[in-house]
Structures are given as structure tokens and as C-alpha cells.
Amino acid sequence: MAPNRQPTTPRFWKAGRFSLSLAQPLVMAIVNLTPDSFSGDGVAGDPVAAVARAEAAVTAGAAILDLGAESTRPGAQPVPVEEEWARLQPVLRIVRNWPVAISVDSRKPEVMARAVAEGADILNDVTGFRDDQAVAVAVRCGCGLCVMHMQGEPQTMQLAPHYDDVVAEVRAFLTERTQALISAGVAAERIVWDPGFGFGKTLAHNLALFQALHLFAREFPLLIGVSRKRMIGEITGQTQPADRVIGSVAAALKAVTLGASIVRVHDVAATVEALKVWQALGDPLI
Fold first, then answer.
1. Among 29, 81, 161, 221, who pairs with 200 as Cys (CB 3.0-4.6 Å)?
2. Domain limits at 130?
3. What is the Cβ-side half-sphere exposure of residue 207, based on CA atoms within 13 angstroms?
4. 218 part of the active site
5. Which of helix, strand or coil describes residue 268?
6. Is 143 exposed, middle or buried (0-12, 13-18, 19+ CB in 10 A)?
7. 174: closest CA among 225, 226, 125, 122?
8. Alpha helices (H) in 132-188, listed in sequence order
9. Residue 133: inside a domain, yes or no?
């Protein structure tokens, strides 16, 4: 039998306008505002299409919308601040008052600060708030914070990732960045962890981290994003990201049984439906 989620008492994630209950798993919908998303679903330059995608995700059951205007796929090149903001701002201004938490996926302190001013509820930083200016933004705002691990930079992170002990090293990084945020004045209940699957990691590294999720979940709530990623393709043999839906849903369910509180996905309806069925059939998600 799969282990129960940890801890067994209800928890909350303080995130801007919201205090999100983590007593049941939440679905975060990926809304790519880029032209070069690895999954092929970017809608750069088309706020109408982006808002339509966001509306569909909310209708399907997403509790959080994650807006990303700079690709961080392997090999991706950095985008200037103004270009990233030009993609992000029109959509953020429309969705910021919707009754779901709005997350902004950015590693730039300047974009983070502008997003906070425009009403973002969550800051999702793939660099784990390593930049002192990002920490300063985090301290000044009341947003929820997703602290993620990445080895290297998107341009080069998948060339030759190496760890002596991937689980220990990722946990040590997340712990260190969390302690830095708390020492700077961030409340612990605003923080969730993301081990960063596929960000400077081989399939073997990803599998080792996945099997250790219950250890991470004992320390902070976990946000897990493996949707359509290469690790799913390497396991299933599906070479096209759009064909990895079934594998992605299976991975999301497994993550929840190992302690994940939030799953970040492209395919919201399929994930929400799978979670409903699994819960109805009695799997011990809480």
C-alpha cells in the first residue's frame, strides 16, 4: 500500500489573496505565454488565446494558474525583462482578480516585483531565490513562494548533470534557500518546495528523487512538475510531448501518494478526473 501523505493534519499555503488548503491535492495549470515551450503549447503574442486556455483550466478544476513568459526548457536562451513582461502583463491584468491563485513563473527579480504590483499571488522561481534581489521582493510581498532546485542554467543544464547523492544535495539546497528566506523575514507557511525534475538531472536522478518524495514532504509541502517532460518520454517511449498525457497523469497520481500537495500540469481535465476517481476508490491520499 502507498504511504499516507505527510503530515496527516490539514495544512495551508499562504499565497497572496489565498490561504490554500493542502488537505487535498491541488492542480496547478501551466499557461505558457512563450513561443518556444517544449510542450508545444505556447501562446506568445496572443493574450486572447492565453486567457481562453486559462479559463478552460479553471473550468476543468485548476486551483492555481501558473503563467510563464520565458521558457526554461533545456537549451532555452534568456529573454530580456521587457520582452518577458510584455508577454505577461496583458494576461496577468485579466486573470489577477479571478477566484483562483495566480502564480508567475519567473526567475527575474524585476519581473517578480512588477507581477506582485499587478496582483500575483505566487512567485515560482526555478532558481530557488538565489538572487538577493529576488529574496528582497519575496520579503516585501505576501505571495506564496515556490523554491525550486536547478543545477546550472537552462542553456546548459542537461549537458552533463552530476551528483554524488542527488537526494541529499537537492534537499540541502532547498533547506539552505528556505532558511535564507525565513531568516530574511519570510513566513514558513508561504513556502513550498519543488525538487526540479528535469532541471539539470538525468532520468536516473529524476527517478531517485521521485522515490524519495516522501522524505521531502516531511519538511515542506511539495509542488511537483513532471508533466509531458522528457523523463516521461524516456519511460514510455513517447517522443512527442503531446503524446505523454497518460504517463504524465500516472506520474501526478504517484507523486500525490508519495506526499505531493500540488501537481503542476498541462492536462488539467485529465489530471483532475484521475484524482477524483482515485480518491473515490479509496486510495489514502490524506
1. 161
2. 24-278
3. 7
4. no
5. helix
6. buried
7. 125
8. 132-140, 166-184
9. yes
pLDDT (tens digit per residue) in 37-57:
544 455 566 889 899 999 999
Place of cell 494558474: 65
Q: pLDDT tens for residues 81-117?
A: 999 999 999 999 999 999 999 999 999 999 999 999 9
Mean pLDDT of 228-235: 96
Judge whether 261 lies within some domain: yes
Whether residue 142 lies inside any domain: the answer is yes
Closest CA to 188 of 40, 50, 14: 14
Residue 102 bridge partners (DSSP): 65
CB 211: neighbour CB atoms within 10 A? 12
- Per the residue annotation, which of 53, 171, 190, 229 is the catalytic one? 229
Count of structural domains within the chain? 1
Is residue 159 classed exposed, middle or buried when 0-12, 13-18 and 19+ CB atoms within 10 A define those classes? exposed
Of 53, 230, 244, 264, catalytic: 264
- The reported pTM is 0.91
Beta bridge pairs of residue 19: 14
User: What is the amino acid identity at position 240?
Assistant: Q
Report yes or no on 5 lying in a domain.
no
> In CATH, what number is assigned to the domain containing residue 129?
3.20.20.20
Residue 229 a catalytic site member? yes
